[in-house]
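cron nightly-structures :: item 1 of 1
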Amino acid sequence: MTIIKCDHCGGTHNSSEEVKECWLLRTKKRSPRKTIVSSKKKSKVIQLPPTPSNIGSGMSTEEKESQAKHRRKNPSAAEKALSSGLQRLKNDGYVFTREKYIYGFYADFYFAGGRLVVEVDGSSHDGRELEDARKNQVLEANHYKVLRYPASQVLFHTDDVVRDIEKWLITRRARPKKLKGKAQPKNQKLPYQKTPLEIMESILVQLT
């Protein structure tokens, strides 16, 4: 039996349908508006002191990786939905890492080719606006891009969120990972190969 952690009530459910029902019941049975959080939207700037780059240096590499593994094994329903949605971008070389430790913070999803961090904000982020703002500032000061999406939006409109992320990657010309032993990405044109007839014609031209 699959146990899924719920971002809204803090409990667990046996299926994604139960999670969605929980969301609907706790939001007075009204589905969230179908909107996309634009990466270009200007947010209010909160002035915070710069955080040193060696933050979290007290943790050993083994401790960081152990904590990352624990977080990967216990995703919320929204994180699990987005992880599944991002799988289709793998064919184009956009491979995301879960719970990447960067400058003292764990990124929900990270794509190295574009230095892109994607965050899913569930109920655990309530009252943590200042901490989230600090995380954004530290990462962006070190040339990372942070995209944030509400957990409800990710859960109910996963495809729209994935398309928004894909649009950002294409617009910023993020470098996809080279695929090994797999088909070429759909957007990449294969080199032209001459037909046997064209090869024979070129040989005859050289002989005459």
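cron nightly-structures :: done
Residues 31-39, 43-56 have pLDDT under 50 and may be disordered.
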